[in-house]
Every structure is written in structure tokens, then in C-alpha cells.
Specification:
Number of domains: 2
Shape: globular
Radius of gyration: 21 Å
CATH topology of the largest domain: Four Helix Bundle (Hemerythrin (Met), subunit A)
Protein name: DinB family protein
Organism: Geodermatophilus obscurus
Number of strands: 0
CATH superfamily of the largest domain: dinb family like domain
Largest sheet: none
Number of helices: 6
Distance between the termini: 56 Å
Structural class: mainly alpha
CATH architecture of the largest domain: Up-down Bundle
CATH class of the largest domain: Mainly Alpha
Order of helices and strands: HHHHHH
Helix content: 40-55%
Length: about 200
């Protein structure tokens, strides 16, 4: 497998990891903010869609024809990070699939040393190669797939790359609770904090 094919394979795998975190969830759970800063599953998918459209579109002179939500009059900052009530899940998933296809077409048609222009990057880095952009976007998609891992576990306890247990040890709920308690105790001991039982660290 050549380098471009390998990078594209990893990008496609991380896209699938992110998308899988929506499986089996209802409308509220895919949209609701799970962190204090509002991070949510459908918003991550929407955001990654626009990341792909930009980096593999305008950056290489290959605009997709899709508009960006932040260009709308009166658009608020972060509008690409959540789905409004009138945006259906199907709308966001269609955008995600479209952005992936557009990205793959750009990657397929250009050599790795093709040069693009990223206006929002620093001047000395503003004209990266396709190779650099592929690595950058692959890293960003992987980071957001990791965010989605944590969100999904907080929503319903589901963990794993694509399905529960597929890359985690087989443990019962009680075994996971005991494992977590050991980590909590270790953290408290390292920080010199009392244990949940109130005993000084290291006692017993």
C-alpha cells in the first residue's frame, strides 16, 4: 500500500469511528450538550463535515458548492458545532457523507506534493502540501472521534471503538466499578488526599 492510500485508509477508519457513536441513540441524546462547553455528538459530525469541505475543497481550489454556516448573516460563533432544531439528523449525515466523498475525490486526483492555501494558518505554514493536510485532518478527525468516545460513555455507558467491548477488556459493571475505584484511590494517594472512606492515604 502506498503512503497516500495508507493515510486515506486511516482517515476513513476514523470517520467511521466517529459516526458509529451515534448508532442506537435517540434524537435528544445525539444532540444534547454533554460537557460544560456544549460538546455534543451530532455537532461533532457536523463540524468534521465542514472541516473536510474546507481543507479538501477551497484549500486546493476545489470548492464543493456547499455554503458554510458561519458565512450566513448574523451567524454566531460555533454554529458548526451543534444542530439547530430544523436541521435533521439525516441532513447532517448527508453532509458528512458528501464531505467525505468530496475529500476522497480531491485526495484521489491530486499528488501528495500538490500545494494548497490555508488562509487561516500562519504565513510561514500557509501553503501546505496535500500530504500535510491529510495528516492534519486525519489527526483532527481522530481527536473528535475520541471526544465522541467519551460523550457516548457518559450518555449511556457504551464504550469501545464501534461496539461495546470490541477493543476493551471483557468486564462486568461491578468489575469496571472496582477498576475505577482503584484508579480513584491511586489518584488520591498520589495527591495526598483522603480516600473516599476518610482514611488517610496509604492507611490500611
Amino acid at each position: 500500500m502506498d503512503e497516500k492510500s495508507a493515510l486515506l485508509e486511516y482517515l476513513r477508519a476514523r470517520r467511521a469511528d466517529l459516526l458509529a457513536k451515534l448508532d442506537g441513540l435517540g434524537e435528544y441524546d445525539v444532540r444534547r450538550p454533554v460537557t460544560p462547553t456544549g460538546t455534543n455528538l451530532l455537532g461533532l459530525v457536523k463540524h468534521v463535515s465542514y472541516v473536510q469541505l474546507g481543507y479538501f475543497g477551497e484549500v486546493f481550489g476545489r470548492p464543493s458548492g456547499r455554503s458554510y454556516p458561519w458565512d450566513a448573516e448574523g451567524a454566531e460563533e460555533g454554529v458548526d458545532l451543534w444542530a439547530a432544531p430544523e436541521e435533521s439528523r439525516a441532513d447532517v449525515l448527508e453532509l458528512y457523507a458528501f464531505s467525505a466523498a468530496h475529500a476522497d475525490a480531491t485526495i484521489g486526483e491530486l499528488p501528495l506534493d500538490a500545494t494548497g492555501t490555508v488562509p487561516w494558518w500562519r504565513a510561514e505554514r500557509r501553503h501546505p502540501t496535500l500530504h500535510t493536510v491529510l495528516v492534519h485532518v486525519g489527526g483532527e478527525v481522530a481527536r473528535h472521534a475520541g471526544h465522541a468516545d467519551v460523550l457516548r460513555e457518559l450518555i449511556d455507558g457504551s464504550a469501545g471503538v464501534s461496539s461495546p467491548g470490541d477493543n476493551l477488556p471483557e468486564r462486568s459493571a461491578a468489575e469496571w466499578a472496582a477498576f475505577r475505584e482503584r484508579i480513584e484511590a491511586a489518584a488520591r494517594q498520589a495527591a495526598g488526599l483522603p480516600t473516599p472512606s476518610g482514611a488517610p492515604p496509604g492507611d490500611g
